[in-house]
Design brief:
Elements lengths: L3 H16 L8 H23 L6 H31 L5 H9 L1 H31 L2 H10 L1 H10 L14 H12 L6 E5 L6 H9 L2 H6 L2 E6 L6 H12 L12 H14 L2 E8 L2 H8 L6 E6 L9 E4 L5 H10 L24 H14 L4 E6 L4 E7 L2 H13 L4 E6 L5 E3 L3 H4 L5 E6 L4 E3 L8 H4 L4 E6 L6 E3 L1 H6 L8 E5 L1 E3 L16 E5 L18 E3 L20 E3 L7 H4 L13 E6 L5 H5 L6 E6 L2 H13 L6 E6 L12 H8 L6 E5 L20 E5 L8 H4 L7 E4 L8 E4 L9 E5 L6 E4 L9 E5 L8 H4 L7 E5 L7 E6 L2 E6 L10 E3 L1
Parallel strand pairs: 1-4, 1-5, 2-3, 3-4, 8-10, 9-11, 10-12, 12-14, 13-15, 14-16, 16-17, 17-18, 18-19, 19-20, 20-21, 21-22, 22-23, 23-24, 24-26, 25-27, 26-28, 28-29
Antiparallel strand pairs: 6-7, 29-32, 30-31
Helix pairs in contact: 1-2, 1-3, 2-3, 2-5, 3-5, 8-9, 11-12
């Protein structure tokens, strides 16, 4: 991580050179010279970073000094761009005269930035000179070749012989792996994968030494690969173990002779070869190309490496087994984090930044470094949330502090206390990334006497204020909000669950011209100031779940805006008079919250780069236009959600049938909500191709009279079905044996007349989640539920005389068992 700050700085300087070229005309050569120096420093620090435990104090001091100089360079250039942008704002003769009169100040600013960059370059030169004078390279080489590095390599090696390691909670996994290994007719390659420390090596060692395995094979070999894989060394180790009599000759064989002998011994004997701790696909493919006639057991942390043969993911221990293991074995003292968490590859020309971010997140998840919750459908995959395990998070914070990442996380849990969010003790002297989490009844305040210095303000790049309480929001006084304009270089500003005094944001927010990301989610305020038009670098504006917020018609000036999350609006008389223009936002990739009452669809139809869309429709004309555009206008649309409300006349009259046909046969619709009266469903359309890509369907207040399952079961990609209050007013529903082949989740809520739900054997073969609420007339369906063999989660409430059937899961192997039914008339209780 030593050169990570240099990489960030180089990227920042490159972007500044592109975005501010015309304003850096007087100092462009100075900036480019600084960029060149930083590249040289990066090459040197890459060597430093390979030795991750620097015992030399000189090395640590140089790294900290270089990082500080990098931060200074970034601050100087961005402060200069703030001055330039503010001097060019406004049009007309008056503004022209003002800019002309400011020419002396601009010249002074050019001189000042030139002088400051010269000072930074001189300081970098002095550090670089001292590095060479004191022999940094020799220090690094000594550390890399010294006993400490050699000890680390020995600590990572594994062996086939049994040790006194505790083995708990993986008995079922062991039985299955032994069965898979000894069976000749199954997969030749078995890949056991999962996050570090799960016990992959331990369980494979158990398989390797199992009595059934020893009887099934003639020869055995175990090789620990690690990240420093040397193919020749691995082949020599394998042949030494498969042919012990030729152990001395192996090192004298040529590569061709070595491979020939391996081929020969595999033909003569049934061999089991364990490749422990594989890290790279190219190493895997090379080795499997040689071991063509042997049974292979592999362990790896990476999902893509395990993507060959039978991929066996090792899960987490249960709580009881975890405590049992803790009793037997303490936590490892010398944990070595994996190198190269994310591979650095050039971005393809057609890829967006969102595509690259998804790729990186997938890579981290496949290496078990982060845990993600994703919505996977037949056609797409979207990440819902991402979090770190507590131990990994603590490790990251510790490493960030050691590497001077300048991140500060503040947890406010005091009950009824007051907290000054702008005090020097909170912001710190050189903090760049500040996150504050409010979990109690805390009153935010700002003491004018403890105002931070300008030097502190110019370091801040990210500010996050997040309230985790669902009962009350955090009140932000106006004195705090008005001070935020001093953080001129902030790029990320996040408020979640906040109540802004006077229900407005101060106009000074428009001074934060470097802002890239502005989130005001689940906040209470009435309008954004028109000064947001100054935020020319803004890429994301997120007002999700902030109700009735008026946005000025200046969004077209946000020329880099790519992700827009609009607020929700109530259908009040005041709101109906409000109209927001979405014209000119042709670079948008995400549009969440379109509402036909407040926005014009024609401007949206011109957004050719949309990847995510969520729209609420109240009239038939707009509905028809949206369906036409979904079918023909967007090739890159990964996710589309359509919410149909009252006002759209979906009736069986001759005039409206074409609209309904277009809706039911829309080829690019992924999620559909219908919240209006329909009555008839099955007879409304005569076609065999219904919703060809629909994954999520929610019906509410439709008052359908005929059994809706007869048509819904034909949806080829449907994975989630929600029948919410008054969606169906009939008495009986039947799920036929061949229906709902992809359905995973079903919710039956508030169906007052439902008396019978019949589930034929074979229906919903992969259903995993079922929830039934407020169906007071529904009879017992125990026998119907027993035919659903993959059920994992069941939640039932307010069903008279109902019983319960539970399906559980343990470490990837499902164990289904019935249990007695209980009735909970007033509370919902989940079963997991």
């Amino acid at each position: 991580m030593a050169e990570s700050a240099i990489l960030v700085a180089l990227e920042t300087l490159r972007n500044l050179l592109l975005d501010e070229a015309k304003f850096l005309s007087g100092v462009g050569s100075q900036v480019k010279g600084l960029q060149s120096q930083l590249k040289e420093m990066q090459c040197l620090l890459e060597d430093t970073d390979r030795s991750r435990q620097h015992k030399s104090k000189s090395v640590g001091y140089w790294i900290l000094e270089i990082r500080d100089l990098v931060y200074q360079a970034e601050d100087v250039i961005e402060m200069y761009s703030v001055v330039q942008v503010s001097s060019r704002s406004g049009r007309g003769i008056r503004q022209f005269c003002q800019r002309f009169s400011c020419l002396p100040n601009r010249c002074c600013s050019l001189y000042k930035i030139s002088w400051e960059i010269s000072e930074i370059r001189s300081a970098i030169g002095r550090v670089y000179k001292s590095i060479h004078e004191y022999g940094l390279r020799s220090i690094i080489q000594e550390e890399n070749s010294g006993p400490a590095s050699e000890n680390q390599r020995w600590q990572r090696k594994t062996y086939s012989f049994e040790t006194n390691d505790c083995f708990v909670g993986m008995e079922e996994d062991l039985k299955r792996l032994v069965s898979l290994t000894v069976d000749d007719n199954l997969n030749r390659v078995i890949s056991v994968w999962g996050m570090g420390g799960l016990g992959k090596t331990t369980i494979v060692r158990k398989v390797y030494n199992h009595v059934d395995v020893k009887h099934a094979f003639d020869s055995f070999a175990w090789v620990c690969i690690t990240q420093q894989c040397q193919i020749r060394f691995v082949l020599e180790e394998v042949i030494k173990q498969l042919m012990p009599q030729q152990k001395e000759d192996a090192m004298h064989l040529s590569d061709t002779e070595l491979v020939e002998q391996l081929f020969q011994v595999q033909k003569e004997k049934r061999c089991l070869i364990v490749l422990d701790d594989l890290w790279k696909i190219e190493h895997r493919d090379c080795l499997l190309g040689v071991f063509v006639d042997s049974q292979i057991l592999m362990t790896t942390r990476k999902q893509n490496v395990a993507d060959v043969g039978l991929s066996y993911k090792l899960g987490l221990l249960s709580m009881a087994d975890g405590w049992e293991l803790l009793k037997c074995k303490a936590f490892p003292r010398n944990y070595i984090p994996p190198e190269g968490l994310i591979s650095v590859e050039n971005r393809a020309s057609e890829e967006t930044l969102m595509d690259v971010a998804k790729c990186y997140l997938s890579e981290l998840a496949s290496r078990c470094m982060v845990e993600i919750v994703a919505q996977e459908t037949v056609s797409s995959k979207r990440y819902v949330s991402c979090h770190l395990h507590d131990v990994v998070r603590d490790l990251c914070l510790l490493k960030g502090k050691k590497e001077d990442f300048r991140l500060k996380v503040v947890n406010c849990q005091a009950q009824g206390g007051r907290f000054d969010v702008l005090s020097p003790s909170v912001l710190g002297i050189k903090t760049r990334y500040l996150a504050m989490h409010f979990r109690g009844e805390v009153e935010v305040e700002h003491d004018q006497l403890t105002t931070t210095h300008e030097e502190t303000n110019q370091h801040i790049r990210s500010l996050k204020f997040i309230c985790h309480s669902k009962q009350r929001k955090i009140n932000f006084p106006n004195s705090v909000l008005e001070y935020f304009h001093n953080f001129k270089l902030v790029r990320v500003l996040v408020f979640e669950g906040c109540n802004f005094q006077r229900r407005k944001l101060p106009k000074e927010i428009g001074n934060l011209i470097h802002l890239r990301y502005l989130r005001l989610r689940n906040c209470v305020f009435t309008e954004l100031p028109s000064s947001i038009s100054n935020l020319i670098y803004l890429c994301t504006l997120d007002l999700f779940h902030s109700w009735d917020v008026r946005i000025p018609n200046v969004l077209h000036k946000l020329i880099r805006l790519k992700h827009l999350f609009l607020p929700d609006y109530r259908k009040t008389s005041n709101a109906r008079t409000y109209q927001l223009s979405l014209e000119g936002l042709n670079k948008l990739e995400t549009l969440i919250g379109f509402d036909s009452l407040f926005h014009d669809w024609k401007s949206v139809s011109r957004m050719k780069n949309l990847q995510r869309l969520r729209a609420t429709v109240h009239d038939t004309k707009t509905l028809s236009e949206i369906i036409d555009d979904l079918n023909t206008n967007w090739n890159n649309l990964h996710e589309s959600t359509l919410i149909i409300k009252d006002g759209c006349e979906l009736t069986s009259s001759e005039q409206e049938v074409p609209i309904l046909k277009k809706l039911f046969t829309c080829s690019n619709l992924h999620s559909l909500w219908i919240d209006m009266r329909m009555q008839k469903l099955q007879q409304e359309i005569e076609t065999q191709v219904v919703f060809p890509r629909l994954v999520f369907l929610t019906l509410r207040n439709c008052k359908i009279e005929d059994d809706p399952m007869l048509m819904l079961e034909m949806l080829p990609c449907l994975e989630s079905l929600c029948l919410w209050p008054c969606s169906y007013v009939g008495k009986k529903m039947t799920c036929r044996a061949t229906g709902f082949c992809k359905l995973k989740t079903i919710q039956l809520w508030g169906l007052p007349n439902l008396t019978e739900w019949k589930v034929e054997k074979g229906a919903m073969p992969i259903l995993s989640e079922l929830e039934i609420r407020h169906c007071p007339k529904l009879g017992k369906v125990q026998d119907e539920l027993r035919s659903i063999t993959n059920l994992e989660e069941l939640e039932i409430s307010e069903i008279p005389g109902f019983g319960k059937w539970v399906s559980g899961r343990k470490r990837g192997v499902q164990h289904c068992f019935p249990c007695s039914f209980r009735h909970h008339p007033s509370t919902d209780w989940p079963i997991s």
